[in-house]
Prior knowledge:
Blueprint: E1 8-11, E2 18-21, E3 27-31, H1 34-40, E4 45-51, E5 55-58, E6 62-67, E7 73-78, E8 85-90, E9 96-100, E10 114-116
Parallel strand pairs: 3-10
Antiparallel strand pairs: 1-2, 2-5, 3-4, 4-9, 6-7, 7-8, 8-9
Amino acid sequence: MPEDASRLTGGCLCGAVSIEITGPAHVTANCHCLSCQKLSGTGHAFHLMFAEDTVAINGETKGYSWTADSGNEVTTHFCPNCGAPLFGRSSGYPGSITVRAAALDDSSGFSPQVSVYAKRLQNWDATAEGTPAFPEMPPAG
């Protein structure tokens, strides 16, 4: 969480779902996996990972689950009205939730600490300069 913020807010495009975060981000990452590319409609998604008990979701979401390359079960949640992707959970990171940076009202205080699935990086996309890049998902812990 940016130094001067006591909480973060956000939500979907139509306003049916809101998010409030009251704890610090554990990690910030650009993910270049094919699933994130398809879900974002671009070359990567920028995720912020928080302890689940610091994130409040208000409003109905719909989830879609799949098995990732890592073998973990991943569920992404989106607004069933406007379709905006909002947050996700992975069985590989119990107790954590990843919020899409684009779902926040102001994500300008964050930058990616790592890039994952860099092996899927499209030639028309880029990793953040100076950011460590992993070919796949590094082990949790």
